[in-house]
Specification:
The protein is an alpha+beta fold. The chain has two domains: 4-230, P-loop containing nucleotide triphosphate hydrolases (Rossmann fold, 3-Layer(aba) Sandwich); 241-330, Nucleic acid-binding proteins (OB fold (Dihydrolipoamide Acetyltransferase, E2P)). The chain contains eight helices and 18 strands. The strands form four sheets. The protein has a six-stranded mixed β-sheet, sandwiched between helices. Strands 13-17-14-15-16 form a five-stranded antiparallel β-sheet, with no helix packed on it. A hairpin with a 2-residue loop joins strand 4 (57-62) and strand 5. GO terms for molecular function: ABC-type maltose transporter activity; ATP binding; ATP hydrolysis activity. It comes from Palleronia caenipelagi. Keywords: ATP-binding, Nucleotide-binding, Transport. This is sn-glycerol-3-phosphate ABC transporter ATP-binding protein UgpC. Pfam families: ABC_tran (PF00005), TOBE_2 (PF08402).
Length: 338
């Protein structure tokens, strides 16, 4: 196992800069998730960490080794791809042992590690099957097993669950969390899905336009976003961010142009008794919770999350109160005001 230290990383594709002075520390044994919208640089950062892409400047250390210019095979990493990258003509066993064979692992050690990985991933009954005979979830387990048998210092995952259906994605997410607890290894995981990031990570790195926007624990980012971008990206439904001029009766800081409130943090009160009045234009019952889609006087649209048995009707007029400790304030550039 090993930690990761990235300092001053800059990456270009021709004249286009993809990463801007990225510096980041990932602790030994940490599950770190890179998250952000398409094109934000998260996969480029992972591939640069893996050695699949070069960087114009900066350094990368894994453990006590400077691997900035090392080949991928010399970085003591294993990578799991979105596409599984399994050999279709090989059995599960052969896929898992292939990398060990190439690297000259002792045969007895190969057998031992495949047996252990198959036990951890519940693949014992599938070792002699070909990938085409497996479900998507089973193929992803094989890809993870192939990484496990190498016993690397660091595991890298590039959107490994994006090809799975929603139900299987949740199941595999739980399996990966359990795997991390069993192995205690450093894991770096890329996803565009903030729900995956929130549920799996010890540390989340939010990227935006090739730059790190914020680094922190899931709840740090949820409760203390440093910018409008993070506030709206982390959380589902997203934080309501709207013009501060819409509300009254709130203790706003100098320079506040935008305010934010999570959907679950609105208090519903009688019209005129809150900080802003709204009309219910739509309603979604989701079982355990209900979402109200609201419109305020200037046309601003908001979302409120309530208990599943809420009886508020469409077209109802109501007031919204924002508790002071739940209020987020942003300046004209979208930076949080503390």
């Amino acid at each position: 196992m090993a930690g990761i230290d990235i300092q001053g990383l800059n990456k270009f594709y021709g004249a286009t800069q993809a990463l801007f002075d990225v510096s980041l520390q990932i602790e030994d044994g940490e599950f770190c998730v890179f998250v952000g919208p398409s094109g934000c640089g998260k996969s480029t950062l992972l591939r640069t960490l893996a050695g699949l892409e070069g960087a114009e400047s900066g350094t990368i250390r894994i453990g006590d080794r400077d691997v900035t210019n090392a080949e991928p095979a010399d970085r003591d990493i294993s990578m799991v791809f979105q596409s599984y990258a399994l050999y279709p003509h090989m059995s599960v066993r052969e896929n898992m042992e292939f990398g060990m064979k190439v690297n000259g692992f002792d045969k007895a050690l190969q057998v031992e590690r495949i047996k252990e990985a198959a036990r951890i991933l519940q693949l014992e009954d599938y070792l002699d099957r070909k990938p085409g005979q497996l479900s998507g979830g089973q193929r992803q387990r094989v890809a993870i097993g192939r990484a496990i048998v190498k016993n690397p210092a660091v595991f890298l995952f590039d959107e490994p669950l994006s090809n799975l259906d929603a139900k299987l994605r949740v199941a595999m997410r739980v399996e990966l969390e359990g795997l991390h607890k069993q192995l205690g290894s450093t894991m770096v995981y890329v996803t565009h899905d903030q729900v995956e990031a929130m549920t799996m990570a010890d540390k989340i790195v939010v990227l935006n336009g090739g730059r790190i926007e914020q680094v922190g624990s899931p709840m740090d980012l949820y409760h203390r976003p440093v910018s409008r971008f993070v506030a709206e990206f982390i959380g589902s439904p997203a934080m309501n961010v709207f013009d501060a001029g819409v509300v009254t009766g709130l203790p706003l800081k100098p320079g506040t142009e935008l305010i934010g409130c999570r959907p679950e943090h609105f208090d519903l009160v009688a019209p005129g008794a809150g900080n802003v009045d709204a009309m219910v234009r739509n309603k979604e019952r989701l079982g355990a919770e209900t979402l109200l889609y609201l419109t305020v006087g200037d046309g601003t649209e908001l979302v409120a999350r309530l208990d599943g048995d809420d009886e508020t009707q469409i077209d109802a007029q109501l007031g919204l109160r924002i508790p002071g400790h739940r209020l987020h304030q942003f300046d004209a550039d979208g930076l949080a005001l503390r």
